[in-house]
From TrEMBL, chain A:
<dbReference type="GO" id="GO:0000105">
    <property type="term" value="P:L-histidine biosynthetic process"/>
</dbReference>
<keyword id="KW-0808">Transferase</keyword>
<comment type="similarity">
    <text>Belongs to the ATP phosphoribosyltransferase family. Short subfamily.</text>
</comment>
<keyword id="KW-0963">Cytoplasm</keyword>
<dbReference type="GO" id="GO:0005524">
    <property type="term" value="F:ATP binding"/>
</dbReference>
<protein>
    <recommendedName>
        <fullName>ATP phosphoribosyltransferase</fullName>
        <ecNumber>2.4.2.17</ecNumber>
    </recommendedName>
</protein>
<dbReference type="GO" id="GO:0005737">
    <property type="term" value="C:cytoplasm"/>
</dbReference>
<keyword id="KW-0368">Histidine biosynthesis</keyword>
<dbReference type="InterPro" id="IPR024893">
    <property type="entry name" value="ATP_PRibTrfase_HisG_short"/>
</dbReference>
UniProtKB/TrEMBL annotation, chain B:
<comment type="pathway">
    <text>Amino-acid biosynthesis; L-histidine biosynthesis; L-histidine from 5-phospho-alpha-D-ribose 1-diphosphate: step 1/9.</text>
</comment>
<feature type="binding site">
    <location>
        <position position="127"/>
    </location>
    <ligand>
        <name>L-histidine</name>
    </ligand>
</feature>
<protein>
    <recommendedName>
        <fullName>ATP phosphoribosyltransferase regulatory subunit</fullName>
    </recommendedName>
</protein>
<dbReference type="InterPro" id="IPR045864">
    <property type="entry name" value="aa-tRNA-synth_II/BPL/LPL"/>
</dbReference>
<comment type="similarity">
    <text>Belongs to the class-II aminoacyl-tRNA synthetase family. HisZ subfamily.</text>
</comment>
<dbReference type="GO" id="GO:0016757">
    <property type="term" value="F:glycosyltransferase activity"/>
</dbReference>
<keyword id="KW-0328">Glycosyltransferase</keyword>
<keyword id="KW-0808">Transferase</keyword>
<dbReference type="GO" id="GO:0000105">
    <property type="term" value="P:L-histidine biosynthetic process"/>
</dbReference>
Length: 215, 376
């Protein structure tokens, strides 16, 4: 049975493709993509399409894609109606709480405002900390918000920390680690178990090789 | 200009869509009828309290709530199992079980916005109350297979599990409730990397850790029951596997074996389930279309303990893969001028014995005129 895989565009795209290639998938067409949106594997009965991270979950939940590769950040923020079966260990970064030097939101007395692109994650984190904060949803350049006094701190993704540093922000706490995950549609896993398990096995195998080379 | 929209997560079904849904409903109900299930219609609204008793961990934000004139909280019904148990434990209190009830009704749950999910779906199912697992599990499974056949003749899978497989494994580990909940959720979502780090944090014996790590993978055809045995660290676990194997053998004798698969890591969110669980899948639909299980402790919460099992089909989820149904009756149009109105209605009544007749007043005609419409 043919299976469809939704890949996340952008940050994860290159690394995911590399991993699939290593696992023996004929993914050249995705590498040399023009304006095409759906790609056929040259080796196996697999179809790929490139979508935005949030849409990846949606496509998998609806079963349009059987498998999706998407960042844990997106998974944490969205719905959870899928199987999350494999940690690919690529696209690593973390969620952090940051703010202006010496002005930690954790020490502030009174009303605390937090700016973030990820209100659900931030809400859960502060709830677990027992802190009552006001969340302000910001769509881009979250670092700007504390600088201009819109909020006392931010919850955001940090890869290298350069952007934070350049803007004079410091990290106060790590919320959680993030990496790319393989998610699977529940019904697909029941009906195309063999094919899907094969993909998972293939990916797992080349992950093992990764470990050997990096260690 | 005013625009009129419908609330999120709801749908209008029009023309052909309705006939497909109605036809499917009739077919399924015919199966239920043939098993002796009697239809029950309950109100669309229930007291909030009824659901609070029914579901232990009801998610408040997923209920439609409003108030009655006394300030009591009402909800749109979230499922049909709880109302039916309410009826069975009140109106049928003094009668001797078993009770076989069927229903087809819209149920309501508020889902997250914009994910394309339904807040209103039609649930068509049965509940069999007052019979133990030995007495009725097989009957219910066979009935579920027959219903799946109506959906997709041969291309369906019915997946079995047992909630107690997870619960018995947890029973002697002295985990607190919160940890069990987290564990259940991670296993149910087959969230492998979180599961493995969570297990490490619990400080369990290696044997137990391996069991839970393996649990999400213990799914597939009947072979999986054998594969699972070496991981079973508790005699109760082996007993559950033996029970599932017995059901499989019986289903095999009845000729259903190629549709049966297992998932031992099935841990549903509805916590009234107490034993066998099953879900039906058809190709082309991203979620289960049929689901059910045993809930032996639910009736007790309503004051009269009795074992029970049931399942339902979410009709709306199946519609996309069903073929259009053709109307069998021939259809005609009956045109008439104003002066022949009464005559037209007389003629129409005659024709309606074996035709669908649509009336159309049109002064272009001198007298009543029947126009055949073959293409509809």
């Amino acid at each position: 049975m043919s299976i469809a895989i939704a890949l996340t565009k952008g940050r994860l795209e290159k690394e995911t493709i590399k991993l699939l290639e290593k696992s023996g998938y004929g993914i050249e067409s995705v590498k040399n993509k023009g304006r095409q949106l759906v790609f056929q594997d040259s080796q196996k009965d697999v179809q790929y399409f490139l979508v935005k991270a949030n849409d990846c979950i949606t496509y998998v939940q609806h079963g349009v894609a059987d498998i999706g590769v998407v960042g844990k950040d997106t998974l944490l923020e969205g719905d959870k109606d899928y199987y999350e079966m494999l940690d690919l260990g690529i696209g690593k970064c973390k969620f952090i709480v940051a703010g202006l030097q010496g002005k930690s939101p954790f020490d502030k007395v009174g009303h605390v405002k937090i700016g973030t692109k990820y209100p659900n994650i931030a809400k859960k984190y502060f709830l677990a900390k027992g802190m009552d904060v006001e969340l302000i949803k910001i769509d881009g350049s979250v670092e700007l918000a504390p600088l201009l006094g819109l909020c006392d701190g931010i919850v955001d993704i940090m890869e290298t920390g350069t952007t934070l540093k350049e803007n004079g922000l410091v990290v106060f706490d790590t919320v959680c680690e993030i990496s790319a995950r393989v998610i699977v549609n529940k019904a697909s896993f029941k009906l195309k178990r063999k094919e899907i398990s094969q993909v998972l096995e293939d990916l797992k195998e080349s992950l093992g090789e990764n470990d050997v080379t990096t260690n | 200009m005013k625009k009129f929209a419908i609330p999120e997560g709801t749908r209008d079904l029009i023309l052909g869509e309705c006939s497909v849904k109605k036809a499917l409903q009739k077919e399924i109900e015919a199966v239920f009828d043939s098993y002796g299930y009697k239809e029950i219609i309950t109100p669309s609204i229930e007291f909030y309290q009824t659901y609070q008793v029914g579901f232990d961990n009801v998610k408040d934000e997923s209920m439609y709530k409003f108030f009655d004139h006394n300030g009591r909280i009402l909800t749109l019904r979230m499922d049909m199992t709880v109302p039916i148990v309410r009826v069975a434990t009140t109106r049928f209190k003094d009668q001797k079980p078993p009770f076989r009830f069927q229903y087809c009704a819209n149920v309501y749950k508020v889902k997250e916005s914009f994910a394309g999910k339904r807040n209103e779906v039609t649930d068509c199912g049965i509940e069999l109350l007052g019979q133990s697992a030995e007495e009725s599990d097989l009957e219910i499974l066979v009935c579920a297979c027959e219903v799946m056949e109506k959906l997709k003749q041969d291309a369906y899978t019915l997946e079995l599990g047992n909630i107690n497989f997870f619960h018995s494994a947890c029973s002697d580990l002295h985990l607190d409730e919160e940890d069990i909940k987290t564990l259940a959720d991670l296993i149910d979502r087959k969230s492998m990397s979180e599961l493995s780090s969570f297990l490490e944090s619990l400080a369990l014996s290696e044997e137990v850790q391996t069991f839970f790590l393996q649990l999400p993978w213990l799914c597939g055809d009947v072979e999986v029951l054998k594969e699972a045995l070496p991981y079973c660290f508790h005699p109760k676990l082996r007993a559950i596997i033996a029970g599932l194997k017995e059901l499989y053998d019986q289903l095999k004798e009845l000729g259903y074996e190629k549709h049966i698969t297992f998932d031992l890591g099935k841990v549903p969110h509805l916590n009234y389930y107490s034993g066998l669980l099953f879900e039906g899948f058809v190709e082309g639909i991203g979620t289960s279309v049929l689901s059910g299980g045993r809930y032996d402790t639910l009736a007790e919460k309503f004051g009269s303990p009795m074992p029970a099992i049931g399942f339902s089909v979410k009709l709306d989820y199946v519609l996309p893969v069903l073929e259009k149904v053709a109307t069998k009756q021939p259809s005609v149009r009956l045109c008439y001028p104003m002066k022949a109105k009464v005559k037209a209605l007389q003629k129409a009544k005659e024709l309606r014995k074996d035709h669908i007749v649509e009336l159309l007043q049109d002064e272009a005609y001198e007298d009543v005129c029947v126009i055949k419409e073959d293409v509809r």
